[in-house]
Specification:
Two copies of one chain form a homodimer. Chain A is built from twelve helices and eight strands. The first copy, chain A, is α/β, with parallel strands linked by helices. Chain A folds into two domains: 262 residues, Alpha-Beta Barrel (TIM Barrel); 36 residues, no CATH class. In chain A, α2 runs antiparallel to α9, α6 packs parallel to α7 and α10 runs parallel beside α12. Chain A is globular. At the A-B interface, α7, α8, α9, α10 and α12 of A face α7, α8, α9, α10 and α12 of B.
Chain lengths: 321, 321
């Protein structure tokens, strides 16, 4: 097994922020950066580079949602070999906020979009590419995209300067056969692009799917420490660190970080394999209904939730009698 | 994907009993049987058929460790289509305790043994086979067996009447490549035997490994509800129920059981993906050191534990000066 071509992108702050509304202290982020750097992790996605002007409720979330280079320089005064990454959403980023890479702490900017918005996503990619950044485009909700739409998106991506294209299992609904199928498809249609994979753990398949993708030649593996991420969470960084063959990674610094910083976060906030996430995963649905259930007093009513999710919509058409 | 040849063996009571010292009420077991039967699960392993005479501390464990047919008939007065299974350990079973299958509630008796004890295991298998039971032999700690020992064991097994032979990932150290390798080996050496797989979840690979085994033709898939089992636990029954293709299984009855019975057990007892189990799994070690750590005041000292587990033994040879 040759997987030393892989690079780990730790998304703890960015995807984990979806769990705790980015309530990460500067100390937490600094210690995470140090641990990831010691462990040999290649990228740390330190947040979103969206603009607070373009997002409702922006004042409620901390600095990790609207990364600012002056701020980042204070957080990480001494950068190690771990690069920094930021995610942007279509329609939420102000291009004027982005410095040239030579003046920025950030190395990689990733654009998340749905298949239908790939053109808009690639506009952003072009801008970031011209500014000198490494770029990726992350097509979300792949399991719900029709073949013809995807092929059209591939044509645009193939002609773009984007460096990495992501296979994203937004709903945690994919198994290893799906990963084989999708990576084959991406490799066929995008022979000139490097690939990444972003998994969710609704069916306890995030790590396994990442390993399968790695073996097929996918380079960027998204993960987060202790799996912290929206809903069922992501592929745990620590599992990749210890299990990727022929790699330079060290497990110990991240174990130490989990012990000192993550356990208390996990006590306060919830993510991981919970039955409502299994239900949305297996049904190939967005986890929002599971998140709503878990925030309600009926959080443990699994059978009722399953019934609701599997019952055909009520027919609202009133038949005239 | 054709997996409808698979049968699920739910081990919640037997392997889960290793977590809570078999503190399962009769009501709990009855409701589990009803849920598994409604879900279409093929076998329920309802405990051990060891003899209390041959085991120290036997009086501390409930009836599920020393199954008795009169007792079982009271627990399950009306058997459904879910068959019952029991596990025995070498040297802990009294053959005189075993009724002929025609007079017993139990359908399948499984013999757990290490590779070096396969001869003794097969002696038991012969006895149970003559009494009319379905039989399996479960070779534990496969990852630590040398090839020559295994091939010798295969020769004896091939010539025996045993129905099923298990690939057992005792330490939760195997990934999908290992499963491919081992199932291929078993199929090559034991062309006349049906196979089973028993996984542990130390690296979140129990479900994925079970799926891979199923696709390769393995028939019996061990699992437990909510993954309840020793250490990191097993492949969750609910994941197999919902994800095995071309199957007759129903997820809902087991979701209902989890909601009503398992959540309170999980609050009281601990199993699943915990960092010490990741450490023993990735190091291909028995989980006992992780279990000891988790029962101690130092339970969260992951880095120290990792250091201890990865430091070469102290050299006790005293060099004469």
């Amino acid at each position: 097994m040759k997987t030393n071509h892989c690079k780990i992108v730790d998304c703890t702050i960015r995807d984990g922020g979806l769990v705790n509304n980015w309530e990460f202290s500067v100390e937490f982020v600094q210690n995470l950066y140090a641990a990831l750097n010691d462990a040999g992790v290649d990228y740390m996605e330190i947040g979103y580079k969206n603009s607070p002007k373009l997002l409702k409720g922006a004042d409620e979330a901390g600095p990790w949602r609207f990364l600012d280079d002056d701020f980042l320089r204070k957080v990480i005064p001494q950068k190690g070999s771990t690069k920094l990454s930021a995610l942007v959403d279509i329609g939420r980023v102000d291009e004027n906020d982005i410095l040239p890479r030579s003046e920025s702490m950030i190395d990689l900017i990733r654009v998340a979009c749905y298949s239908k918005d790939v053109d808009k996503g690639l506009d952003l990619v072009n801008t970031f590419h011209k500014l000198g950044y490494e770029t990726s485009i992350n097509i979300m909700a792949l399991s719900n995209v029709m073949e013809n739409d995807l092929v059209e998106a591939f044509q645009m991506i193939k002609a773009s300067p984007v460096d990495f294209v992501y296979v994203v299992d937004s709903y945690g609904s994919l198994d290893h056969n799906d990963i084989h199928f999708l990576v084959d498809k991406f490799q066929t249609h995008l022979p000139n692009k490097r690939l990444g994979v972003h998994t969710h753990n609704n069916m306890q398949l995030a790590f396994s799917n990442s390993l399968v993708a790695a073996e097929k030649g996918v380079e960027l593996l998204d993960a987060s420490v202790y799996g912290m991420g929206r809903g069922a969470g992501n592929c745990p960084t620590e599992l990749l660190l210890t299990h990727l063959k022929n790699s330079k990674y060290q497990l110990r610094p991240v174990l130490s970080f989990i012990e000192n910083y993550m356990l208390s976060v996990r006590e306060k906030w919830e993510w991981g394999y919970l039955i409502p996430y299994l239900v949305t995963g297996t049904l190939d649905e967005h986890p929002r209904s599971a998140m709503a259930l878990l925030a309600s007093p009926e959080r443990d009513r699994y059978a009722e939730f399953y019934d609701r999710m599997t019952t055909p919509e009520v027919n609202f058409n009133q038949k005239r009698s």
